[in-house]
C-alpha cells in the first residue's frame, strides 16, 4: 500500500469554490476564473508516494506546490478530492483528529527554521515530543539522539542565535526526526541557505534517508536539488502536475515543451547514472581486461573520468560484481556533450 495518496485534489480560493471546481472539470481555464476573482491554486492533483521514498514537487513561484503541501498536513482543506495517509482519509477527519495525526505521524521542516529563540537547541529539537506529552527525560534523550544524527552533538545547550543558518536548519531536521513520524514534509527547507551549506544539507538528508528510509515529500524550485535527491519528481505549472516520474524520465523524456525548457539547464552529469546510458549485452572483449569499471548508480560525471582513461566502452557491474552492461564513449558524449579524449591502451590503465 502507498504511504500517501492524493486523488483529484483541488484547492480554490474565492467565491463559490465548488462551482469553480466544476468549471475546471468541464474545461474552463485558470485565467478565466481569475478574471472573476477566483484563484485555482491546485488543480486535479493525483499522485502516490511509496514508503521510504523521497517525492519531490518542483515548480516556479505560484505553481501551487506549497499550497499542495499545506493540504497534505491539514493546514488547508482541499476544495475537492481526497488525501489518503496509511489508508486513512485525512480529508474526513475532524480538526481535533487532524491535529493528533499532525503531532504524531507527520513532521514538518520549514524554510526559515522556525526555531523558538527562547528555547535552547535541545528544547527546540524536543518540541514536537513536548506537544505529544512525552516525559522530559525521554524527550531530552530522543532529542539529543536526533541532534547527534544531524551532526550537532555538543550544541544542546546553545541558543539558536549562536548557530549558523545551516546549523539552525539541522536543528529543524532533528526536531522532525525526534518524533519518529511516518511522513516528513519539507517546504523549500534548504532554499534560504548558501549554496555550499545547501549541498551539505542535501548530503545530510540523503545519508539519513539511507539509514531511516523515511517517506518524504520535498518542495523545491531548484531543479538540480530536485533531480539530485528525488526518487520521484512531480513538475507543477499553474496549479497542475504536468509530469511525474524519475529524474531520468523527466530529463530524457519531457512531457511537453514547458518541461523541456524547465529542465534544460540541469547538470545531467550529476543527475543521470550509468544505468541510464548503458547498453547490453556487455562488450565481447571484456574477458581478461583489468580496466576500471563502474556500478549502475555511478553518476555520469564520475563515469566520464573512467571513460577518459580506457580505450573502450566502460563496463557496468551489478551488486554481485557481474558485468551487466557497458557505456561507449560516443554514447556518453551524446548524453552530456563532453568531448572525446584520446584512447589509451588497457595495459597503461592496469599499470
From TrEMBL:
Keyword Electron transport attached: no
UniProt cross-references to InterPro entries, sorted A to Z: AAA+_ATPase, ABC_osmolyte_uptake_ATP-bind, ABC_transporter-like_ATP-bd, ABC_transporter-like_CS, Gly-betaine_transp_ATP-bd, P-loop_NTPase
SMART domains: AAA
Domain ABC transporter: 4-263
One example GO MF annotation: ATP binding
Keyword field contains Transport: yes
Alphabetical list of Pfam families matching this protein: ABC_tran
UniProt family annotation: Belongs to the ABC transporter superfamily.
Protein's name in the database: Glycine betaine/L-proline ABC transporter ATP-binding protein
